Each structure stands twice: as structure tokens, then as C-alpha cells.
Amino acid sequence: MIFDADIHPAIRPADLLSRLPSPWRRRFELFGTRAVAPPMVYPRVRNGGMRLDSWPAGGLPGSDLDLLREQLLNDYDIGFGVLIPMQGHTFGAEEPEYAAALCRALNDAVAELFLDKEPRLRSCVCVPHESPRHAVAEIERLASDERYVQVLLPTGTSSPPGDSKYLPVYEAAAEAGLPVAFHLGGVEGHRGDGWPSFYLEQHAWYGNSTAMVVTNLICAGLFERIPTLRVVLVEGGISWAAPLMWSLDDAWALLREDVPALRHAPSACFREHFWFTTQPIEEPDDPARLVAALEHTGMTDRIVFSSDYPHWDFDSPSVALRDLPKDLRTAIMSHNGHRLYGGESR
User: Quick check: 139 and 161 in contact, CB under 8 A?
Assistant: First the structure.
């Protein structure tokens, strides 16, 4: 049974509007939501970065459950899929009360339009991440509904993700037994030396933003504070992880007094608390090099297949990772996802 950890639904404005209470319904009608952050205005692939065949009549890709079933769940015999509503990235950064209303409406719409109708699907708790007080309330509201299997955050938060501002969000997720998933996007999608000029630059270096999240969370000592917290890295690649661990351990041996909150080797924190999803995984000409890169992480039991449907670079479950050794591919396509989300710790 295939496990897909990254499926993107889209909620139509009308379906969101009907679930917003006053006065936020009127605000949505008059002003909408914030525009995409500056990094999202790079030259991008056409059609919103979506598969040409994924556009339903009168809607956005990912908004039609029947089409999602036809093109993904049924075609590839997906047994378990996790919805990642990317609208939550921008909704979560709105003015606090409005952001809370938007995220609540989004979560409710996903439940009614997808989860209630399709038992193979699960979803994320979308939270107003820049307003931790409201984010905690939303996590607590949905914590008892086992169809929500993680809390969603963008890699581009307004402050570094290890900032104490976000500590209540991580504490609430851990208390609920939910992993926190960082997905590419948010207010800054390409941390580094300025913004890229081309979409290719951004796409090939998604791992940059993800590595920044990992480094900041570990150095902030977050896992010393919350030893039960699990973090899922979605859509950020994997092959960079082992060299990052080598560098962090080497620097920690020399500079550990600079990070007094971090009492364990960075690589130990990494391997104990983090998980990966596969799309877009690095694909060298020689598949053996990818196998070596994955094995260097020491985390091959923490890698979960993801298709990234309905994006243009969708990975077909029937051909993705087919050059990996059979046992490793089977674990990634199925077993690892069930261990992460399937009740092992809930």
C-alpha cells in the first residue's frame, strides 16, 4: 500500500467565504488575503506550476476531489495520503484575528470537502503561525480529530523558526502527539544571498531553505526543551543532510559554548527528531550515488514517499525511486509513512 505524504488540495474562494464568520467574511470580500511574498514573484513555470491535465472545469488544480481520486488515488492505488493545503502559508501570516479565522475556515473546508468524503486522505492543521496564541488554540481544537496528522508551517517564517516566539506552537504540537511539517514557502522561500533571478535557481536549491530550518531549530536547543517533538521536512530534498550533519558536529565540537542550549551532538538531534519526504529528491545520473547519499544520513527509515500532486514536477508512484534497492524503495513507498503517521506514537 503506497503512502503519499504531499498532496496539495485547493479550496475555492466561495467555499472559504461561506465558512468565515463576520466580520472576516466582509473583509475577505473587500480585501481578500495578502499578496504572495516577493520571492514568489520570480519568473515561474506557466499554469501556476501545475500539471496541465490537473485543471478541473471552473476550479484550481487540487480543488476537485473526483479528479484527485482519478489521477492519483485510484490510478496509483494510494492507500494513504496527506493533504498539505498551501493556502495556509499565506493565511497564517495575516493580521492575527483574521489569520485565525482564515486558518479555521480552511481546516473546516478541507475536512468537509475532502476528509469527510475520502477515507484514504488525512490533512494538516493549518495555523496562524505568526500568532502563536491563536495557533495553539487551533491545534487544541483539532487535536482529537485523528484525520489531522501534523501541524503545517512554512520554511519562510517571519522570524527564524527556532525563535522563542514559536515555542508555544511546537509545545502544543508535541502535546497533541503531532509532528510539525515544514513545507517550502511562506514569507521567504529562498534564504541565502538575496533572491534568485530564475525559477530554476529556486527549484534546484529548495534544500537551502530546509537546511536553514534544521540548523536553526537544532542550534536553538529546541529539542532539549521538547524531546518528543518530531519534524517533517517536506519538498526540500535530502542529499544535503549528511554533509550538514558533518559540518554541524565539527563546529559544535569547537564552539559548543556558543550554543549552551544544545547539549547533544547536532547529528544526534537530527537523526532523532527529523523526517524527510522525497519529492523533489536529487537524481544523479548514477543511482548508486543517491543510495550512498541516503545511507550517509543514517535516516533511510525516516524517508517517506511524496508525489507533490498536482504540481508540474509530480512524481509518479509507479516509476519514482525505481532504481533504489527493493527493500529501501518498499520502506520509503509504504512502511516509513505508516510508522510516522500511522499511530505508532498516537
Answer: no
Using alpha carbons, select from 210, 209, 204 the residue that is nearest to residue 192: 209
- Provide the CATH number for the domain around residue 135: 3.20.20.140
Residue 337's identity, in one-letter code, is G
Reported in sequence order, the residue ranges of 137-200 that DSSP labels E, i.e. its strands, are: 148-156, 180-186
Q: Is residue 346 part of a domain?
A: no
Domain count, the chain: 1
What is the spatial distance between Cα 207 and Cα 239, in angstroms, rounded to a whole number?
Answer: 9
Q: Which residues contact 117 (CB under 8 A, 6 or more apart)?
A: 65
Q: Is the pLDDT of residue 202 over 90?
A: no
Rounded to whole angstroms, how far apart are CA atoms 77 and 93? 36
Question: Cell numbers at residue 76, please?
Answer: 496509483
Instruction: Give me the helices (H) in the chain, please.
Output: 13-17, 24-31, 65-68, 87-91, 96-110, 132-142, 167-176, 199-204, 206-219, 222-225, 241-255, 266-273, 287-297, 326-330, 336-341
pLDDT digits (tens, 9 = 90+) for 121-179: 999 999 999 999 999 999 999 999 999 999 999 998 999 999 999 999 999 999 999 99
Given a contact cutoff of 8 angstroms between Cβ atoms, the answer to whether 138 and 107 are in contact is: yes
Considering the entire predicted model, what is its pTM? 0.95
Q: Are 142 and 125 in contact (CB under 8 A)?
A: yes
Distances 293 to 37, 45, 239, 324 between C-alpha atoms, Å: 33, 29, 5, 12
Look up residue 333 and give its DSSP letter. I
> Is residue 104 in a domain?
yes
In this structure, is residue 345 part of a structural domain?
no
C-alpha cell at 21: 464568520
Which domain range does residue 76 map to? Answer: 2-340
213 in a structural domain:
yes
Closest CA to 149 of 184, 170, 177, 172: 177
Instruction: In whole angstroms, give the CA distance from residue 4 to residue 2.
Output: 6
